[in-house]
Specification:
By secondary structure, the protein is α+β, with helices and mostly antiparallel strands. The chain has five helices and four strands. The longest helix is centred in the first third of the chain and has 13 residues, at 10-22. The N and C termini lie far apart (54 Å).
């Protein structure tokens, strides 16, 4: 079977997603201002790459069968954003206390594996730094 590659490079999709997130209301805080109650937490971005050997119905059936939608996010974990990237899959950013990292990992191992290939990236809010740099401040 021949695999069809998307003509839309992943790097462009990532850049577009990043640019879109800068325009969302949740990112409209003044530079350097953290959301209330975020001390002692971290951001984690999760790439859920679609298994293109499965139809959407098969992926959804897998997520229903494993209970992924009921178990994610685990208690104490906040979904900050959740996007669908056509031709790639889904990209989720969560805010969590570091001690909840294992719970997030287990939710994916038990529920999403088999429907998605997953990648996890520690993340931080670069926008205040970008705005300060853009304004010419040191």
């Amino acid at each position: 079977m021949r695999q069809v590659r998307s003509p839309f490079p992943v790097s462009i999709a990532l850049a577009v997603t990043f640019a879109l997130t800068l325009t969302l209301p949740g990112h409209a805080r003044p530079p350097g201002e953290k959301p209330a109650g975020t001390e002692g937490t971290m951001l984690l971005t999760i790439f859920m790459r679609h298994d293109q050997g499965k139809t959407l119905e098969e992926i959804n059936a897998h997520l229903d069968r494993t209970g992924f939608r009921k178990n994610f996010p685990p208690p104490g974990v906040e979904v900050v954003s959740w996007y669908v990237m056509m031709g790639v899959g889904q990209v989720v950013t969560v805010r969590l206390p570091p001690e909840k990292l294992r719970d997030v990992n287990l939710a994916f191992e038990k529920g999403a594996w088999g429907a998605f290939r997953t990648e996890f990236y520690p993340t931080y809010d670069y926008r205040p730094i970008w705005e300060k740099t853009r304004a010419g401040a040191p």
